[in-house]
Here is the input.
Amino acid sequence: MSAISPPSPGDSVRVVDSRNFPVSELISAALVEILPGAIREMHWHPNNDSSNTF
Here is the structure.
């Protein structure tokens, strides 16, 4: 995964989609790492579940 968000305290986000992985035309993925003590923003998915959350 090569698309990395600007650094912020407590987290990092990497996204793979058709912009940086051309073969991925219909799907995307994101790896969100949250350090202990950090807080993730509230969000929701009106039509889908979050998958592979661990």
In short: The beta strands are 3-4, 11-16, 29-34.
